[in-house]
Amino acid sequence: MKTIEWIGDSTGYLRLLDQTALPVETKFLDCNTAKDLFDAIRRLSVRGAPAIGVSAAYGVLLGLRDIKQDDRKLFDTTFFEVSDYLAESRPTAVNLFWALDRLKKLVQNESALSALQMRDRLLEEARAIDAEDREMCAAIGRFGAELIPQNAGVLTHCNTGALATAGDGTALSVIFAAHQQGKNIHVYADETRPLLQGARLTAWELMQRNIPSTLICDSMAGWVMKQRNVQVVITGSDRIASNGDAANKIGTYALSVLAKAHGIPFYVAAPSSTFDFKIASGEEIPIEQRDSKEITIGFGKQTAPDGVNTYNPAFDIAPAENITALITERGIIQPVTKENIAALLQN
Ligand code: MRU
Q: Is the peptide bond before 23 cis (omega within 30 degrees of 0)?
């Protein structure tokens, strides 16, 4: 089952596995316009940093479908409008901007192509971004599995698997690879309030693959660690600053503190497309604020009084000093320092 699939030629459409319906229903959502995709990203029908980047790369083509004339100037204007529009869909995952910037550079460099040739070239590049993401996931899995001991309890947060990427995932790819290698592991999946990506999506992915797992509420993580049921914590990330501070789903900061307090290694798995070398530290990472209804009327049932004040940041930042190692497709970065990150990823 594919999370993201472009159907047809460069005038085709984007088919997404609608993650808002899981785990109860498996249904697909066809995006025919850039607005369809914008809305799908906003409401988390497609989500997870790499998946947002890959879908936006294809999504640009949706805004160029109606271009009939071979007018390159009009094509470029429309292209930049569509990519600026998609860039507004969500602010934190840098993979979105990374993918759009890659296409922008291509459009600027390939000025000799006609409009229709350029559109085909964009599809080729979107497919390359998709394929590279799959390869990066596999490499992250291979490197990361080395860090998972035999007979380990592994705690994870949010959803970082096949649903969050074009491949097998980031943190979950490590878990899948360790399991495939025959390591006896038991996964504790945080339910991940308020949108329950852990309960709805991670628990589902783990069960599909027959990996022993237990779903817990986020607030139980510290106690499960205290009971010595967790030997490793591993999460993904939406944006990693030059110094290694890593933004991820709200609750990740608390997990990094808890892991440190219990002497448990805390790993962050992410492809190089998640690193933002334009920013020095996590302080510069924009944190998405979401609708208060996600807290007060989650999934249709009112659970708080009318008019209650809420605070609903979708992400927080695990500081580099709490991260034992970063797992990337190029290898493992340990200790997590600006210099070590640059040495592995910036040459
Ligand atoms: O709001 P979401 O569901 O898009 O948040 C996703 C996460 O926080 C993931 O952990 C992150 O994108 C890394 S996924 C490979």
A: yes
